[in-house]
Design a protein that fits this description.
The strands form 6 sheets. A 6-stranded mixed sheet has the order 1-2-16-5-19-3. Strands 4-17-7-15 form a 4-stranded antiparallel sheet. A 3-stranded antiparallel sheet has the order 11-8-14. The chain is of the alpha+beta class and 299 residues long. The protein has a domain of 170 residues: Clavaminate synthase-like (Double-stranded beta-helix), CATH 3.60.130.10. Helix 5 crosses helix 6.
Length: 299
């Protein structure tokens, strides 16, 4: 749902005309914003079989921060784990991309020379810029939830930065509400079509950066990459994109850390990036990624 079409029958902090609701919500969000990854971490015994207290702790952090991190003992590779964990947290509608395995889970590891995946940055050891997952999807396949489980970290590097999109929204709106309005336009960001030897594999996809779903939750669709993306060519959008890049470069709420073996991120598709890394050839980096059409606690 577009920002200017969000329901106005109740207090709505994302309605640019409802400054009172925005100010109250903003004050609460900033007062509770995490300053380190420690605030997100929940120790669990078995992610595939959470206790009631573990589940409640993960959902509590997700409700406050839009993300949580679990930590458990390292175990053997188990691609079924993200689905089992997701079901316990309300993540049911799995979105399986074309590079996922038969269960719809994407093994994120270096795949140089191993089929088409090797052409895509997540399957290399290169850095990945700020983005939310599925920014190239149509509205009906909007990625709302995600699980990233670490089986083996890289020998060196591979850390992530994380930022709650609600905190990015606040920073941008505080700079100028016109930036939020521009990035809420339905043609603000366009991803060109992806083609293969058979023709158009994925059609061109336009959409907003910021939108609000039917339950009043903010959704963000973004990539910092400059290739294979077209921003609306007007002054308002260009100024908003530059301002957003500045927010991502300077926000005090950016969290940084590396998932170690047995750790995982569960989130409402927050902004994230990844630094470059170097592998141990005997124990290459391996993470499992599952993406869902549900938000945490709502499926």
């Amino acid at each position: 749902m577009r920002l200017d079409a969000a329901p106005r029958t109740r207090a709505n902090p994302f309605d640019l005309a409802d400054e009172r609701s925005y100010r109250a919500w903003r004050e609460a969000r900033l007062a509770d914003a995490p300053r380190s990854l420690d605030a997100l971490v929940v120790a669990v015994r078995d992610p595939a079989a959470l206790t009631g207290a573990e589940r409640s702790a993960l959902l509590e952090r997700a409700a406050r921060f839009n993300m949580a991190i679990y930590r458990t003992a390292p175990g053997l590779p188990d691609p079924a784990l993200p689905r089992a964990l997701g079901r316990q947290l309300g993540l049911v509608r799995l979105d399986a991309n074309w590079l996922a395995d038969e269960e719809g889970i994407s093994p994120i590891t270096v795949r140089a020379g191993a089929g088409p995946a090797g052409a895509y940055i997540p399957y290399t050891d290169r850095a990945i810029q700020w983005h939310t997952d599925g920014y190239y999807h149509p509205d009906e396949r909007r990625i709302r939830g995600m699980i990233l489980h670490c089986v083996r970290p890289a020998a060196h590097g591979g850390a992530n930065r994380l930022l709650d999109p609600e905190l990015a929204y606040i920073a941008l709106r505080d700079l100028d509400a016109a930036h939020v309005r521009a990035l809420g336009a339905p043609d603000a960001m366009t991803i060109p079509a992806r083609t293969d030897e058979e023709g158009v594999a994925r059609p061109e996809q336009s959409g907003p950066v910021f939108s609000v779903d039917a339950n009043g939750h903010l959704h963000m669709r973004y990539t910092a990459r400059t290739r294979s993306i077209a921003w609306k060519n007007d002054a308002a959008t260009q100024a908003a994109v530059a301002a957003l890049r500045g927010v991502l470069a300077t926000s005090p709420f950016v969290l940084r850390g590396r998932l170690e073996a047995g750790m995982g991120l569960v989130c409402n598709n927050v902004l994230h990036d990844r630094e470059a890394f170097a592998d141990d050839a005997r124990r290459p980096r391996l993470l499992y990624r599952a993406r869902f059409l549900d938000r945490l606690g709502e499926g």
